[in-house]
Amino acid sequence: MAADDRFDITPELLLRGYARGIFPMSEGGFADEVFWVDPQFRGIMPLDRFHISRSLARAIRRADHGVRINVDFAGTVRNCADRAETWINPEIAELYGALHRAGYAHSLEVTVDDQLVGGVYGVALGGAFFGESMFSRRTDASKIALAYLVDRLRAGGFVLFDVQFLTDHLASLGAVEISRAEYHARLQAALRETGDFAAQPSSAVSAAGMLQRSTQTS
Hints:
- The protein is of the alpha+beta class.
- The chain has a single domain (about 40-85, about 105-215), classed as Aminopeptidase, CATH 3.40.630.
- Helices cover about 35% and strands about 25% of the residues.
- The strands form two sheets. A seven-stranded mixed sheet has the order 4-5-6-7-8-3-9, sandwiched between helices. It has a two-stranded antiparallel sheet with strand order 1-2.
- Helix 3 (about 75-80) runs antiparallel to helix 4 (about 90-100).
């Protein structure tokens, strides 16, 4: 859009965008323009079909990592943006920081010796969780983060986990692609529900408990 046609995306406008099924992106980490996206096909992760492979289960059982919630949201976003190609520019990072401070955006972080090695962040609205980005500095760290995130979303009563675009990585974990029309219908149903991201899964966040619950539901 032309410079004089630009408008500022506020945190409030961002939440309204999510409720309408759209989300913001930029062309790169140093791009000035932020635009709305409403894909023709949408990736979602069915919460009862998350696939934990044997190798991932072994990595989780090793328990040589920590899992925490919302301790370093800014660091999680910064790591997600730290790649050759990113859609997270400073304006987008600031917007999600504002949503985090308002209680809408959350991070799930994987650590080793208290150092951030993987994680995922996104936005919770009603019974929908919109996964924005994830990163991994260690083998399987982002997969571990997603496994614990799915467990938490199930415990919190969420009914829709939006992953935006279907990738081979996400498909291997159980994600599927649906049409825009189907996504919007599911979104409106999810927004009528009440998800609680703070809800603690039973058996806390132990590896054994999470794997047992995943086996029971997948």
